[in-house]
Amino acid sequence: MTTITTSLPDELVQKLSDYAKTLDVPKNKLIEKALSLYLDHLKRAAYVKSYKKAGNDEDMLSLAEEGMEVYLKQLEDETR
């Protein structure tokens, strides 16, 4: 495990201390969980951005439409 040192605003450190005490959790564990959740959020936001970009790409739209046609045909064949 790596140790890091950082500076945070006093108000934020006070909130961190308050929540850590309320939840009976060490401050470093609270920071670890919060950072992990935030990084996951950033990853999802990047996916959303890439899908929105792909939604404006004519080649990607054509490819998706072709794939849907094949999928619908498979569904029709299975229901017969």
Automatic annotation (TrEMBL):
SUPFAM superfamilies: Ribbon-helix-helix. Residues 4-40 form the Predicted DNA-binding protein ribbon-helix-helix domain. Transmembrane segments: none annotated. It holds the Pfam family RHH_3. One of its GO terms (biological process) is regulation of DNA-templated transcription. This is Ribbon-helix-helix protein. It comes from Cecembia calidifontis.
